[in-house]
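Lab notebook: predicted structure, single chain.

Context: the supervisor wants predicted structures on file for every construct in the current expression panel, including those that have not yet been purified. This is the next one on the list. No modifications to the sequence; it matches the entry in the shared construct table.
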Amino acid sequence: MLRDEASALGFNRLGVIPAGPAHRLDAYLRWIGEGMQGEMGYMARPDRVERRRDPGVILPGVRSVVVVGLDYYTADPPSHIANDPARGRISNYAWGIDYHEVMTPRLEALAGWLRGRSGAAEVTSRVYVDTGAILERDHGQTAGLG
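Prediction complete. Output recorded below exactly as produced.
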Protein backbone atom coordinates (compact mmCIF):
# COMPACT_ATOMS: atom_id res chain seq x y z
CA MET A 1 0.00 0.00 0.00
CA LEU A 2 2.79 2.44 0.86
CA ARG A 3 4.51 1.67 -2.44
CA ASP A 4 1.26 2.34 -4.31
CA GLU A 5 0.77 5.69 -2.57
CA ALA A 6 4.36 6.70 -3.23
CA SER A 7 3.94 5.76 -6.88
CA ALA A 8 0.69 7.76 -7.10
CA LEU A 9 2.65 10.76 -5.81
CA GLY A 10 5.20 10.27 -8.59
CA PHE A 11 8.02 8.54 -6.74
CA ASN A 12 9.78 5.87 -8.79
CA ARG A 13 11.56 4.13 -5.94
CA LEU A 14 10.75 3.39 -2.33
CA GLY A 15 12.46 1.59 0.52
CA VAL A 16 11.94 1.42 4.26
CA ILE A 17 14.81 0.76 6.65
CA PRO A 18 15.20 0.66 10.42
CA ALA A 19 16.29 4.01 11.81
CA GLY A 20 19.91 3.96 12.82
CA PRO A 21 23.28 5.35 11.91
CA ALA A 22 24.32 5.19 8.30
CA HIS A 23 26.37 2.12 7.45
CA ARG A 24 29.19 4.33 6.19
CA LEU A 25 29.19 6.74 9.10
CA ASP A 26 32.84 5.90 9.70
CA ALA A 27 33.76 7.18 6.20
CA TYR A 28 31.95 10.45 6.90
CA LEU A 29 33.75 10.81 10.24
CA ARG A 30 37.12 10.20 8.56
CA TRP A 31 36.21 12.69 5.81
CA ILE A 32 35.50 15.50 8.27
CA GLY A 33 38.43 14.42 10.44
CA GLU A 34 40.67 15.10 7.44
CA GLY A 35 39.06 18.51 6.90
CA MET A 36 37.62 17.49 3.54
CA GLN A 37 34.48 19.58 4.12
CA GLY A 38 36.54 22.67 3.29
CA GLU A 39 34.45 25.81 3.65
CA MET A 40 31.31 23.78 4.42
CA GLY A 41 31.99 24.01 8.15
CA TYR A 42 28.39 23.17 9.02
CA MET A 43 29.10 19.57 7.99
CA ALA A 44 31.55 19.17 10.87
CA ARG A 45 29.53 20.97 13.54
CA PRO A 46 29.18 18.71 16.59
CA ASP A 47 25.37 18.94 16.54
CA ARG A 48 25.29 17.89 12.87
CA VAL A 49 27.70 15.04 13.50
CA GLU A 50 25.52 13.81 16.36
CA ARG A 51 22.40 13.95 14.14
CA ARG A 52 24.16 11.85 11.53
CA ARG A 53 25.27 9.43 14.24
CA ASP A 54 21.80 9.05 15.79
CA PRO A 55 18.57 9.86 13.86
CA GLY A 56 16.80 9.88 17.24
CA VAL A 57 18.39 13.28 17.89
CA ILE A 58 16.40 14.66 14.94
CA LEU A 59 13.19 12.78 15.68
CA PRO A 60 13.04 11.24 19.16
CA GLY A 61 11.63 7.72 19.11
CA VAL A 62 12.14 7.28 15.36
CA ARG A 63 11.90 3.65 14.31
CA SER A 64 11.90 3.70 10.52
CA VAL A 65 13.22 5.75 7.64
CA VAL A 66 11.19 5.89 4.42
CA VAL A 67 13.48 6.60 1.48
CA VAL A 68 12.13 7.55 -1.94
CA GLY A 69 13.56 8.32 -5.34
CA LEU A 70 12.21 10.47 -8.14
CA ASP A 71 13.67 10.24 -11.61
CA TYR A 72 14.27 13.60 -13.22
CA TYR A 73 15.35 12.47 -16.65
CA THR A 74 13.84 14.89 -19.11
CA ALA A 75 15.17 14.01 -22.56
CA ASP A 76 18.41 14.11 -24.45
CA PRO A 77 19.12 17.47 -26.03
CA PRO A 78 18.98 17.58 -29.82
CA SER A 79 22.22 16.29 -31.35
CA HIS A 80 23.08 19.66 -32.94
CA ILE A 81 23.13 21.11 -29.41
CA ALA A 82 24.69 18.13 -27.63
CA ASN A 83 27.55 17.93 -30.12
CA ASP A 84 28.25 21.67 -30.32
CA PRO A 85 31.68 22.23 -28.66
CA ALA A 86 30.76 25.87 -28.01
CA ARG A 87 28.00 24.83 -25.61
CA GLY A 88 28.40 23.78 -22.02
CA ARG A 89 26.47 21.04 -20.28
CA ILE A 90 23.96 21.53 -17.52
CA SER A 91 22.79 18.49 -15.58
CA ASN A 92 19.19 17.62 -16.40
CA TYR A 93 18.12 17.88 -12.74
CA ALA A 94 18.65 21.64 -13.15
CA TRP A 95 16.60 22.03 -16.33
CA GLY A 96 13.22 22.48 -14.71
CA ILE A 97 11.64 23.31 -11.38
CA ASP A 98 13.94 22.98 -8.37
CA TYR A 99 13.61 19.37 -7.21
CA HIS A 100 13.29 20.53 -3.59
CA GLU A 101 10.06 22.29 -4.57
CA VAL A 102 8.86 19.20 -6.44
CA MET A 103 9.68 16.60 -3.80
CA THR A 104 8.90 18.39 -0.52
CA PRO A 105 5.10 18.65 -0.95
CA ARG A 106 4.97 15.07 -2.24
CA LEU A 107 6.93 13.85 0.78
CA GLU A 108 4.64 15.81 3.09
CA ALA A 109 1.64 14.21 1.38
CA LEU A 110 3.18 10.74 1.82
CA ALA A 111 3.84 11.47 5.51
CA GLY A 112 0.22 12.62 5.89
CA TRP A 113 -1.00 9.44 4.23
CA LEU A 114 1.09 7.36 6.62
CA ARG A 115 -0.33 9.25 9.61
CA GLY A 116 -3.85 8.63 8.35
CA ARG A 117 -3.25 4.92 7.79
CA SER A 118 -1.39 4.22 11.03
CA GLY A 119 -4.30 4.19 13.42
CA ALA A 120 -1.92 5.49 16.07
CA ALA A 121 -2.83 8.54 18.10
CA GLU A 122 0.30 10.36 17.00
CA VAL A 123 2.77 9.67 14.24
CA THR A 124 5.56 12.16 13.75
CA SER A 125 7.77 12.60 10.76
CA ARG A 126 10.49 14.78 9.30
CA VAL A 127 10.77 15.52 5.59
CA TYR A 128 14.21 16.01 4.06
CA VAL A 129 15.17 16.54 0.45
CA ASP A 130 18.96 16.41 0.90
CA THR A 131 18.62 19.29 3.36
CA GLY A 132 18.99 17.63 6.74
CA ALA A 133 21.83 16.28 8.77
CA ILE A 134 21.46 12.72 7.57
CA LEU A 135 23.55 10.69 5.14
CA GLU A 136 20.73 10.22 2.65
CA ARG A 137 22.79 8.48 -0.03
CA ASP A 138 23.84 5.81 2.42
CA HIS A 139 20.28 5.33 3.63
CA GLY A 140 19.14 5.13 0.01
CA GLN A 141 21.64 2.41 -0.74
CA THR A 142 20.68 0.52 2.43
CA ALA A 143 17.03 0.75 1.35
CA GLY A 144 17.95 -0.83 -2.00
CA LEU A 145 17.59 2.31 -4.11
CA GLY A 146 21.09 2.21 -5.51
